[in-house]
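User: New here, any thoughts?
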Amino acid sequence: MTGPSAFESDAARVDAPAVRRSQLAVASLFGALGFSYGTWTSRLPAIKANLGLSTAQVSMVLLFAAIGAIFSFPVTAAALHKLGSRGASLLAGGLLALGLVVFGLAPDWMSACAIMGVYGVLASTMDVAMNAQGVEVERATARPVMSRLHAAFSLGTMAGAFFAFCLVEVTPSVPLHFAVAALIVLAAVFLPRAGLIADAKAIDGGTRSFSLPRGAAWLIGGMAFLGMIVEGSMVDWSTLYLKERADASQQMATLGIVSLQGAMLVTRWFGDRARVRWGARRLLFVGSLLAGLSLAAALLVGGVVPALVGFGLFGIGVATVSPCVYAAGAREGGVALAAVMTLGSLGFLVGPLVIGAVAQATNLSWGMAVVAGAAIALAVLSRRVRWD
């Protein structure tokens, strides 16, 4: 269990109003990234139809996002070293909004792939930088807040999907939708920027490039990679599963992300208290097991309603994985934390690609079954990590 001592640092404590401003500013970063992600993933069926893509081509678009995440390692390290996590978050967030507009205007498959490659770099950089800000907030408050910050990501993703659900009724235009969404992302990134911690850096002084985790951080990094494979796959493929396997309408299919992220939002809001009360080991074991079994049951039963219920239970189960894992990574030091967060970001983008490959070879139900199996594997792995 991660107690207050895990968050002690040499950094000076700030006053309570400043801490609250920092929490809100960092939460807004999480929400902005989530909103961006919820926006484009909820419109994947429309993008697939508009560009005439096959399932394999959709997987290739997601592959380029993963490739971007891989090549983001040195970019992220350099940005954090030169700008600190505050500057890196603002730069990546601003460019991410621009990338959303450009993605909405993609005329063909190759353009979509190239744009998603850049998106992967920006999303990974922002992910690592904003989590580094979250670690600084935990150090300033000397208590766990990471789960609530990740709740803001879930809220943003859910809001992005729900915004898509509403806007589809007004206009089917993907470019218009993405342009409006980009303005919302920009506002969420820059309006509260004064509350960000200016001197926070994810990488210890002198570290300019990505480093692989060492010692115990290997296992934590593996947990981050596998955990974010599970979470990212569900976000990317839930709408397409509802549309293609459960025969849901395009509008109804967007509710898959709403169900998933809504459940994650509520769970993450109370996740910090649960982590203190029950400990990370028990929380992750029970949660991952719930996620795997509920998704497997939904796939076996079939239909829209069972899928939505299963996605919700899945969200409850995986909600606390990334907050607990990143907090454990912070305990191993700055370099290890950067490596763990980057591996998590990579898993978030690689997972959907794996599911797409399985779906292309068989069908999407079998692809989602891989996610259920990965969640159960995550439960087993959680028993081997030293959380205290």
In short: The domain at 15-195+209-382 is CATH 1.20.1250.20 (Growth Hormone; Chain: A;). Confidence is low (pLDDT under 50) at residues 1-14, 202-208. The chain is about 80% helix and 0% strand. Residues 172 and 194 are 36 Å apart (CA to CA).
